[in-house]
Write a structure and sequence with these properties.
The chain is of the alpha/beta class. It has a seven-stranded mixed β-sheet with strand order 2-3-4-1-5-7-6. The protein is globular and about 45 Å long. The two termini are 23 Å apart.
């Protein structure tokens, strides 16, 4: 399958989405940051401020050279820092993997895809606009739909519930595993491994 393994170049960019600062740290919208923190722990490194406008860490995962990036901008402005980091490290769009929260995926599930729309996600919309293409990888951390009539925008800016938090570390870990599977073995292998739930 074409576009099965991210990035033909030297590096793969793993960009996690979220909002900066302690106020947002536990929000559903910050699932991407949580997964990137787990990947950083696996590398054994610390994020450092980069001129592209992101916290960046270089290392190796699944036998690949990777650049981890957490934009220092707010979610709806993620595109600038992600694209700035990609350009700095000479990474083409098909070497970009974006890890983000997804309302249309049940909590605890992980979905992976290449390309497609933004599904109302402001971070993805910003990245697609800045990259000038939809053709990049997405690893979607399921946060489920809001209960009752709660607005989706309010829901993603709330922390995970007490019940959800019991499984949160496990789910973050699983999503990080999916990222490693994607960059190490390709999209089809990762989908086969993680889409069964």
């Amino acid at each position: 399958m074409e576009h099965d393994l991210p990035g033909a170049g030297e590096h793969v960019l793993l960009a996690g989405l979220g909002n900066p600062g302690p106020r947002y740290a536990g929000n559903r919208h910050n699932a991407g940051f949580m997964v990137l923190d787990e990947l950083a722990a696996r590398i054994g490194g610390k994020f450092k401020a980069h001129k592209a406008g992101a916290e960046v860490l270089e290392g190796q995962l699944a036998g690949r050279k990777v650049v981890l990036a957490k934009p220092r901008s707010f979610m709806n402005l993620s595109g600038g820092p992600v694209v700035g980091t990609a350009r700095f490290f000479k990474i083409a769009p098909d070497g970009v993997v974006v890890v983000h929260d997804e309302l249309d995926v049940p909590y605890g599930s992980v979905r992976l895809k290449f390309g497609g729309g933004d599904n109302g996600h402001n971070g993805l919309r910003s990245i697609t606009k800045s990259l000038g293409t939809k053709d990049y990888y997405r690893v979607r951390f399921g946060v489920g739909r809001p209960p009752g009539r709660m607005d989706a925008a309010d829901f993603v800016l709330k922390d995970f519930s007490t019940v959800e938090r019991r499984e949160l570390a496990l789910n973050v870990d699983r999503c990080a595993d999916a990222v490693e599977e994607l960059i190490g073995r390709g999209l089809t292998a990762a989908q086969n491994a993680f889409h069964g739930d």
